[in-house]
Amino acid sequence: MNAEFMMALEEIEKEKGVSKESILETIDAALVSAYKKNFGSSQNVRIDINRETGEVKVFSQRLVSEDVYDNFLEISLEDARAEYGPNYEYGDVIEIEVTPKDFGRIAAQNAKQVVVQRIRESEREVIFEEFSNRESEIAIGTIARMTKGGVYVSLGKTEGLIGLSEQIPNEHYELGQRIKAYIMEVKKTTKGPQILLSRSHPGFVKRLFELEVPEIYDGVVLIKSISREAGSRTKIAVHSMDENVDSVGACVGHKGDRVSRIVEAINGEKIDIIKYNDDPKEYIASALSPSKVVSVEIDEEEKSAKVVVPDYQLSLAIGKEGQNARLAAKLTGWKIDIKSESQSQE
Q: CA spacing 20 to 30 A to 12: which of 57, 114, 261, 298?
C-alpha cells in the first residue's frame, strides 16, 4: 500500500460515501488474520497503517503478567525489565515490530479485496435504502430473465422478482418487455437486497388509480376499500371529499379513458368502481354491482347481511363460482347471504 492508495480511499469516501476510517479499520482486521494465516503466529499482533504514506507495520503484543501461561502472549515482569527496560509494571503491554519482508504485497492484496467488498456492501446498502423507502409503490422496469421461480425485472442497478404467486394468471411475458409492478417487500440477504414485486396485489391496482386519477393523487377522491382476484375482477370503493366532484366519474374518466388505461395495465382485468356509502345497506347494495338489489337486511352484531335480488339477477349477483359475492364481502367487510325474491318469499 502507498500514498496513492490512501488518496484513492479519500476519493471513494467522496464518491461512494464509504468512510475512509471504516475501510482502514476493516483492513486492519483483515491484515491481522492474514498475518496469522501466512506466518503461523499465535501471537497477539497490532497492525499500524500510516494514514499519510500507507506504510504497514506489524507489532507483536505481550502482556506483562505475574503468572505466565503462554510465552507468545505474556512475559514476566523480570524478563520485561531485563529485555526492554526498567519502567515496565504488571498490566503493561510490550510491542515489538515483527513486520515480515513480504508483508507489503500481502497487505496490498488484502486491502484491495476489502475495498472491493466494502464498495459492494455500500452499493447494496444504498439500493436497500432506496427500495425499502419505496415499499408499496410502483416500480417500472424491463424483463431481464424468466426462470421456474418467477420473472426477474431489471430496475437499473438491481433486479426485482415477480414470483409465480404474484403474477397475473395467464399473463404472457417477453424478454425486454417494459413492465410495471408493485414493490411488495424489500429484504436484506447475504447476496444483497431482494426486491419482491407483485402484479396480483390489490395495492397494485390502488397505485395505478393514484397515477391515473389526479383527484385521487390530490386527496379529493379517497379509495376507501379494494378487493381483487387478479386476472379476473377487482372491486374498488371510492368516496369524494368534494360534493362537486363525482368520485366514480373521476375514476372512469372522459369516455372511460382513465379506467381503460388501468385495465390495459392489468392485462384486461375487469374493474367495478363503486361509490362508498357510510350506510352499510347502501354500500353492500352498491358492492354487488352490476346486479340490482331489492333489499338488504343487516345484523350489526354478526356484521352479516341478507340480500334479496330479482330472480333473474341471482346468478349475476353471486357471480361465476361465487366471485361477485366474494369480492363484495371482501370490499365491505360484511358477510353477505344472497337470495332471490322467490327464495326469500319461501
A: 57
Is CATH 2.40.50.140 correct for 134-197?
Answer: yes
The domain limits of the chain are 3-129, 134-197, 201-276, 289-346
Is residue 28 within 8 Å of residue 49, measured between CB atoms?
yes
Mean pLDDT per 10-residue run, the chain (346 residues)?
78 79 85 80 81 85 87 87 89 88 81 82 87 95 95 94 95 94 94 94 96 95 97 96 95 95 94 96 95 94 94 95 96 95 85
Instruction: Express each pLDDT in 87-106 by its tens digit.
Output: 889 999 988 888 888 787 88
Here the contacts of 301-305 (C-beta below 8 Å, separation 24 or greater) are: 302/335, 303/333, 303/334, 303/335, 304/334, 304/335, 304/336, 304/337, 305/280, 305/281, 305/334, 305/335, 305/336, 305/337
Confirm or reject CATH 3.30.300.20 for domain 201-276, answering yes or no.
Answer: yes
Per-residue confidence (pLDDT) for residue 181, from 0 to 100: 97
Query: Residue 309's CB: how many other CB atoms inside 10 A?
Result: 25
- The reply to whether domains 201-276 and 289-346 share a CATH topology is yes
